[in-house]
Hints:
This protein has 14 helices and twelve strands. The protein has helices at 13-21, 46-55, 83-89, 116-145, 152-169, 181-187, 212-223, 235-242, 246-256, 262-274, 298-305, 307-311, 321-327, 330-335, and strands at residues 2-7, 37-42, 59-61, 64-69, 94-100, 198-203, 228-233, 276-281, 286-293, 313-320, 340-342, 352-358. A hairpin with a 4-residue loop joins β8 and β9. α1 (13-21) packs parallel to α8 and α4 (116-145) packs antiparallel against α5 (152-169). The longest helix has 30 residues, at 116-145.
Amino acid sequence: MEIGIFGLPLSGKTTLFNLLTNSSAETGFASSKKKANMGISKVPDARLDELKRIWSPKKTTYTTVNYVDVAGVEKGGEKGLSSDVMTSLKNTDALLVVVRQFASDMVPHPEESIDPKRDVSILTSEMLLSDLVIVETRLERIAKQMKGKVSDEVMREKELMEKLQAILEEERPLRDVELSADEIKIIKGFQFLTLKPLIVVINTGEEDIADGDALASELTASINSPKVAVTHLCAEIEQEISQLSPEEATEFLADLGIEEPATARIIRTSYELLGLISFFTMGEDECRAWTVERGAKAPRAAGVIHSDLERGFIRAEVVSYENFVSAGSLAACRDKGLLSTEGKEYVVKDGDILNIRFNV
Ligand SMILES: Nc1nc2c(ncn2[C@@H]2O[C@H](COP(=O)(O)OP(=O)(O)O)[C@@H](O)[C@H]2O)c(=O)[nH]1
Ligand SMILES: [Mg+2]
């Protein structure tokens, strides 16, 4: 999974990127419009930590998310976003939009005042414009082709592009429009930004941490889209916490009334928004977390591990994480009848521990 970090300059994108990916990319004014940073984040999972404790395996493998921290968006270009930004966001599955709530005399806001709702609307306008430019460029190209004889396929694409053009001109993001499976297939390659799910992160000041949930609910209500989730953090404080030892960090978080590091919440929000769940494989050699779409059946989950496991899928032995941990061992699960054998139609659940039987 790849997520693009998107926002106005000096909103705290790179600070958040560093937190998520444990990097030390340059932050602040000089870097705010520079090229993209790329990094990988290990997805924290307390359940995998526990499996590791039980098995003491040779290897423990967490799932990962790739993050691209793009240069700050500059408002008002006629052609939408710069080609650098567009290229960086090309393969992203979702966008993490950072909007600034923190006030600071040392860090000027490009709009000279603090207003997360306005910033979301500026960023949305830039995304709408970029998508509109893509649609119009495509329509111009189709118009040239129309001088000759054109296929039904091109005609269908033209109709669809005209429909999208009308939607974008009404300033409606494509993610909020109902599209058929066919239409989605046609437009997939265009990488429209307003089609991508959004995780909006409000970067609060230290004094606003306690109001974070209220600020997030307010913004959620004003955006009002099932494909947009809003969460919050104070990037600067979390950055300081990340430099502490685990014990110190826990204490510091508790003092501030923060239940868990914000990065864990952001990753969980991303999984929920993208409809993803985790399942596990375990043993003495390796304990490992995997990611699959909610609703996926057992062979599809097997295919995430290896294509051979999907191709030669016979059955899956399944125990839920909770049952495994409460029983204490696989033998105990077997005795108690907690281990089930499932076929091709089994829908994998979050926290399932799978053992795939296959034959190729
Ligand atoms: N006071 C305060 N400053 C912050 C916070 N988050 C980031 N900053 C500062 O704002 C500046 C810009 O941050 P940066 O991550 O580089 O923003 P970017 O341009 O969006 O990548 C840096 O000097 C950060 O130290 C915050 O939560 N509070
Ligand atoms: Mg930056």
